[in-house]
């Protein structure tokens, strides 16, 4: 029997000078020949050049993904085999853990400690879905008489996945792992500012045995490539993580072809700190809740409500610890807060802080771009706390996406639930109290997809992640995500001896 020799992609070092597109299982340059340079936001230094995908490349990638899906090689492989490949991806990533962490730090300006956690979670996502897919199955439903019905889960098809710059590798894993597990094909568009680790992850997918065309990656402009994918009739699903305005635009455009849509959007998440909270734990949790990842987190707890009886004590400690946060060398494990992703983002953050000052707020810490010795060419902002605010202020209503917290007092449970829910967003919320009954009561009343009780951590592989209201819809990181990458087919059959003749003719 003749065998077809599949050319394997050469394994290159994780960190290198140039990164290509990956289409149909091959590293390719853009049809236009265009490339661009990515920079380290902490230092302003160039990291690498990247092929810049054009519309023609997007078309090639969709065709490759379509062909790979329709030929059935991946989608029809047994779930156990797909699980094996996902575990292999995880194991290759484990072997290159430090290299992936370093590349993530350089490309995004985040701290090494943040990158370590995120790369580890990306690995665990593949392991989680390797386990989950084996148990993902349909049902047998009870039927009248001599009918038999079963349902089966089938992969939804070609998925366009568009991700932001704040968690470049982790977001790629949140998207690729469930899609691959379910048997889908993928065209991934990383954020223009941080494409490198998503490209390396796509290479690792091939090394682990994902067939050609099943995962394609297109670094390129969101407004061009992203838009093209969203409108493409051969794309079946769009999974998007990013800002709420772009999410709305994507939903409108995807509706033209009734694509399946998952949206993980912005947030303005509250922390509720009750009078009986462990103050030290609440301060440390709130510090992490807002300054982790330099506040560039959709689930950043950027509104902090503190019971009036402990307000002064909480604020004193919170301000003191905020001033101790270290900025600087992102490759040093002792650095707490990394750089801001870009000059534009730095200016946006500062304009929010200035607007709060103009609205009469008081700055308790930070409040301006940071001078970080040795990192003058990077983008840095001081960890900032703003008091004397109210819900009519822009800095309290809108997502800042930077290291900026607003703090407010409350009198009782009913009032703080009202304040917490007074937002167009509903991604996450944190409750700090020792009273279990209260924690449960408040968790029931809060309109957010994620509630944290006495913990700063919002998610682990297996916990559903997603929003209420304008924070989007659909859940990632969990068993239910597999349903969002699947169609349910209902198969109904008749096994009676007498043939059916409903018209009686
Ligand atoms: P963004 O501007 O919405 O960009 C996100 C992605 O969409 C990028 O890949 C971008 O490409 C692409 N894009 C831009 N315009 C597009 C268009 N017209 N059609 C299709 N794709 C398009 O968001 P961002 O500024 O990069 O990220 C920050 C936002 O993401 C924040 O609002 C944050 O809350 C949200 N976020 C949410 C979650 C969550 O899980 N809920 C997680 C992380 C971030 P380019 O890079 O080329 O512009
Ligand atoms: Mg953007």
Protein model, in words:
The protein has 15 helices and 23 strands. It has helices at about 55-70, 80-95, 95-110, 110-135, 170-180, 195-205, 220-230, 245-255, 280-290, 310-325, 345-360, 395, 415-420, 435-445, 480-485; strands at about 20, 20-25, 25-30, 35-40, 45-50, 140, 145-155, 160, 185-190, 215, 235-240, 260-265, 270-275, 300-305, 360-365, 385, 405-410, 425, 430, 450-455, 470, 470-475, 485-495. It has about 500 residues and is α/β, with parallel strands linked by helices. The protein has a seven-stranded mixed sheet, sandwiched between helices. A six-stranded mixed sheet has the order 10-9-8-11-12-22, with helices on both faces. The chain is globular. Bound molecules: NADP nicotinamide-adenine-dinucleotide phosphate and magnesium ion (MG). NADP nicotinamide-adenine-dinucleotide phosphate binds near residues 230, 266 and 401.
Structural class: alpha/beta
Strand order of the largest sheet: 15-16-17-14-13-19-20
* Bound molecule types: NADP nicotinamide-adenine-dinucleotide phosphate, magnesium ion
Question: What's the mean pLDDT score?
Answer: 97
Roughly how many Å apart are the termini?
Answer: 53 Å
Helix percentage: 25-40%
In total, the number of strands is 23
CA-atom Rg in angstroms: 24 Å
Biggest beta sheet summary: 7 strands, mixed
Number of helices: 15
The low-confidence runs, each spanning 5 or more residues with pLDDT under 50, are none
